[in-house]
Amino acid sequence: MEFGVHRYETCGGAWIGLLRHVWAAGEAGMDDPGPVIEGPPIMFEIASLSWEDPVLREFGDRRLIARARDREPAPLPAGTGGAHGAGQLRWVVELLRARPWTTSAWISLTVPGEAMPGVTALSFRIRGYRLVMTAMFRTLNVSLAYLTCIPLHAVGVRVAAELGLPPGPLRIFADVPHVEIGDIDRVAEVLAAQPEPHAA
Questions:
Q1: pLDDT class for 116, splitting at 50, 70, 90?
Q2: Residue range 113-121: average pLDDT?
Q3: Mean pLDDT estimate for the chain
Q4: pTM: predicted TM-score of the whole model, two decimal places
Q5: DSSP states of the chain
Q6: How far is residue 50's CA from residue 57's CA, in Å, rounded to a whole number?
């Protein structure tokens, strides 16, 4: 078992886990929009991601979810390099097709002279005959993390399909997971409705 990777079966489960992570270990900090509660860095995996997730349907922001669904399919989530990132995804597919012995490819989503995106890099690895994508987040607002995670997973699924491989879990490293101060009451409400499971 890999040390330090939190594994979740569903996007809703990962969202609740991230909220708990920041709630339990967070400290006051600042982000571009203003004051936040900032949690320690975290790496996690999500096996299954869907807008139909029951936790998201009950507690997610329905207006924002509807807007995100209407934008699908998108080449990349907002703030991930735009056409620059989409061109690099084509390069990933071509590289892994042309060189089957090459089992991984990394792309940067930062563009010199432009604002630093929340997602800074994507890694694609062929492991166990599946394509596993890892997203590196400079900063991640966990209150709305599902709005980024589900479109990111769709990117991995499309790249896997181009390569004729099944997609693996979505893996994410978030250097600065945080909750904005204005969202604290809503986070408390969601966590109160989702009690932490007791250890067996």
A1: low
A2: 77
A3: 85
A4: 0.84
A5: --TTEEEEEEHHHHHHHHHHHHHHH-EEEEETTEEEEEPPPEEEEEEE--TT-HHHHHHS-HHHHHHHHHT-S-SS-TTS-HHHHHHHHHHHHHHHHH-TT--EEEEE---TTSPPPSEEEEEEEEETTEEEEEEEES-EEGGGTHHHHHHHHHHHHHHHHHHT--EEEEEEEESSEEEEGGGHHHHHHHHHHSPPPPP-
A6: 10
